[in-house]
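# nightly structure sweep
# worker-07 picked up a monomer target from the shared queue
# config: single-sequence mode, recycle default, output format = structure tokens
# input follows
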Amino acid sequence: MSKLELSHVSKRYGSTAVVDDLSLQLRQGELVTLLGPSGCGKTTTLRMVAGFVELSEGAIAVDGREISGARRTVPPEHRGMSMIFQSYAIWPNMTVAENVAFGLAVRKAPAEEVKRRVGEMLDVVKLGHLAQRYPAELSGGQQQRVALARAMVVRPEVLLLDEPLSNLDANLREEMAGEIRRLHDEFRFTTVYVTHDQAEAMTISDRIAVLNLGRLEQIDTPWNLYNRPRTPFVAGFIGQTNLVQGELRAGRFQLPGLSGAVPVAGNDQAQAQVSIRPQSLSLGAAGGSLLALGQVAVVARTYLGGYWDYLVRPLAGGAPLKVHAAPGHVLELGHESLLSIDPAGVAVLA
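# output follows
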């Protein structure tokens, strides 16, 4: 049985479907991220799980017990869930320890138990030495740890996080994403995490549900989403890629303007579309797992520190392709080279 299950959930405002026939199942202790652009329905979905937004259709259940649906709607405070908001929502007039203790106090836990559990949780999030500080005296990362500690100390059935890192700078965001994953591995709360940041989702997730215009495009592990996307939207949203139209015949995909063909799995199609990751392409001699495709010329380039981002165009004509190369592989504009490909980086799309 799934720990948390969404069955054909929809939310409409007038004629607009913000969430459209969404079904998800989360296993006990699993961290699933809802990922997608602004307006795709991910925060509305999270708020329906929390009980802050009523469903238009469908049902939500925890351990097989319906908490939202046509028959009943359990109030948010009786769902056994904790939610961390984008703004953290910690109380400025309370100390760190008082903020973390708040949920336990509401549940009327014994004073000694509150003191013990708060102390243990603050040590886990490395804030024990700041227990008597107020939020205004903390950094953004420390405030985020307070919000995490307050949510986890009550041992929720399901932990909900709504873009919790969006207010942090890039370096701190990366650090805190790793911290959230560490805490999840320690406590194994069933967790729903909302973000629009692909790298953040790849860092922390057991599985990622990619949403687009209120519908589920694909749910899978980070590796499968990146290497085996099923739709053009998923391929383009998860990292950089080349979306290429061509002919698929007898298990080989023919790229326009290039003489070589790529072995792929799929049925014959006069017009197939594939995703080719830029790092699967190489400028230079073929060999090993690399197959020669044909001659190309460099038409644009960008140095990004860790790699060169080249745009090349087949000499025989055809759409340009992005190619990633090592920092030391410096090519001038107009340089002509053999383009090779690793077939493992090619996925046929629906």
